[in-house]
Amino acid sequence: MMEMTGDVIAEVRGQVGCITLSRPKALNALSLGMVRDLMATLLAWQNDSRVLAVAIRGSNKEGPFGAFCAGGDIRFLHQAGSQGNPQIEDFFTEEYALNHLIHQYGKPYIAFMDGIVMGGGMGISQGGSVRVVTERTKMAMPETAIGLFPDVGGGYFLSRCPGYVGEWLALTGETIGAGDAVAFGLADGCMPSGEQAALWEQLGSQHFADGKAVEQLVASKFVAADAQHASARAEIDQYFGAATVGDVVAALEASNSVWAQAAAVTLRKRSPLMLHVVLEQIRRARGISLAADLRMERDMVRHCFYLRPGQSETLEGIRALAVDKDHSPKWQPARIEDVTPAMWQPFFESPWPTYAHPLAGLA
């Protein structure tokens, strides 16, 4: 059975539901249509007894694999947010509902996180039961660079990394490879990229006793991977465990460590306002459920586009990166030291009563 749904190709092969993201020119960035295709496919397979497990991969211009998913379609978000297109609301509500479904799926969900895995790509992989990385994996939640925050459940999964790694990844948007992804609990194992195609074929042709057997086959391909940043764990915890963003930056800038100085330079380029929002997000998320985190992030993302009319950090950040490409965002306020609690606290006030929240149904 082959369902060609444009940028999402879904088929049941043998006992495994196989999904390929096929929008390589955009690094498989998720559109609203793709989110809907993924949701419909997963809901259909959830109660299909023929499907023991689901496997998902991306594609690049050469074919399958090579890139997983670079995130949400930020050009669409800029256009919709600038023009007041209500589909921007649908996009986030439905994307977060999809993220929740994957975490709660109840069948093995195997994500081949080869190449770029960022933002929304993390949202459709972190909830998987087997998260596979390769030597080509470039993983990040780089939202502070576009005046956003690590959404798609980022508060939940980043806050559950060891120590203060979640704060470091969320604030800086730093890119990590396979070894660090495994060490930080953001992947389950690494396999050589060149062996993925053969495993994919095996998943679709081999007979399995149950879903567990599918997971065991994938795990049998795992190899060791070097962690690049794991050696910086002591520094990460030392600096990123500080009480406020101002404290983090001040400590980094006062340090004579090359690593700390570089981290400070990175933070100075990010949206000062959103750095404060993000630190609070990670700290709040550490103590709440995934559903509660996604509801909080849904509140936050509404505020990103509508809290300050004509002054959206997110629209300005996307403009500078992807629209005008001048890489010179005009953040408001311009400095970390100028952000007051009165500026970031409203991001955590829900625009909806509990019963009317768009994600009220998430359990």
Automatic annotation (TrEMBL):
Keywords, comma-separated and alphabetical: Hydrolase
Molecular function in Gene Ontology: 3-hydroxyisobutyryl-CoA hydrolase activity
InterPro entries: ClpP/crotonase-like_dom_sf, ECH_dom, HIBYL-CoA-H
Gene Ontology biological process terms, A to Z: L-valine catabolic process
Entries under CDD domains matching the protein: crotonase-like
Ranges of residues in domain Enoyl-CoA hydratase/isomerase: 16-348
NCBIfam families found in the cross-reference section: PRK05617.1
Protein's name according to its UniProt entry: Enoyl-CoA hydratase/carnithine racemase
